[in-house]
Amino acid sequence: xxxxxxxxxxxxxxxxxxxxxxxxxxxxxxxxxxxxxxxxxxxxxxxxxxxxxxxxxxxxxxxxxxxxxxxxxxxxxxxxxxxxxxxxxxxxxxxxxxxxxxxxxxxxxxx
Length: 111
Known about the structure:
This protein has one helix and five strands. By secondary structure, it is α+β, with helices and mostly antiparallel strands. The chain has two domains: 1-58; 59-111, SH3 type barrels.
């Protein structure tokens, strides 16, 4: 009876070591997956945000811009976080005050 208990407990120890190894391999694979997803999702978004902030800082008076409402206009004045954009042709001008965040992209920069 003692012999069968010894064999049984030896099997239990071996299976516990195997289970411990499996748990650690799962933890390592989860850490690797989190790392990969972070670099696939967060890093490109952070780069886009940084590029957009740089575009908003460098735009100036006379630049042609595209707004988030898909209207093209020319920047007339910049006041802190706001811009005044002129829309329309030569005979029908319309100037609108809007936030810098409403600028989707700078189409052409004034030289």
